[in-house]
Amino acid sequence: MEHRKRSSYLGVLTIVLSVFALPPHTKAQQNGLHTIDVIRLDRRFDKLVPFNVKVEKIAGGHKWVEGPVWNRKEAYLLFSDIPRNAVYKWQEGRG
C-alpha cells in the first residue's frame, strides 16, 4: 500500500513538473499559481491520480527540469534545472 501512495505522489509530481515543457491551459489563481487541466487518455491513469486532483503549476521559466524529489518529513519538493546547474526547493506557503 505504501508503494501505491508513493507512486501516486510521484505521478502527480511528474505531471506538475512536465507542465514546464508544455504550454498549459490555465486559470489564474489568487496566489499566483495556475490550475492545470488534466486530460485523461487512459483509465489506468485514474489508479494513480484521483479524478478530482488539483494540479498546480508551481514554477516556470526553466529550461530542462529533472526530479522531482519529495521530502515527506519536512514537506518540500526539490527539482533541478540542468542547464542552469541549479536545484530549487518548493514548500507550500513559502514558494
Topology summary:
Blueprint (H helix, E strand, L loop, with lengths): L1 H17 L7 E3 L5 E3 L8 H4 L7 E2 L7 E7 L4 E6 L4 E5 L5
Antiparallel strand pairs: 1-2, 2-3, 4-5, 5-6
Describe the structure.
There is one protein chain. This protein is an alpha+beta fold and 95 residues long. The protein has one domain. It is 22% helix and 27% strand. It contains two helices and six strands. It has a three-stranded antiparallel beta sheet, with no helix packed on it. The protein has a three-stranded antiparallel beta sheet with strand order 4-5-6, with helices on one face. It is globular and about 35 Å long.
Tell me the span between the first and last alpha carbons: 30 Å
Strand line-up across the major sheet: 1-2-3
Helix content: 10-25%
What ranges have pLDDT less than 50 throughout 5 or more consecutive residues?
22-30
What is the mean predicted local confidence, pLDDT? 77
Number of domains: 1
Q: What's the tally of helices?
A: 2
Largest sheet: 3 strands, antiparallel
Number of strands: 6
Secondary-structure element sequence?
A: HEEHEEEE
Radius of gyration: 14 Å
Strand residue percentage: 25-35%
Envelope shape: globular
Coarse structural class: alpha+beta
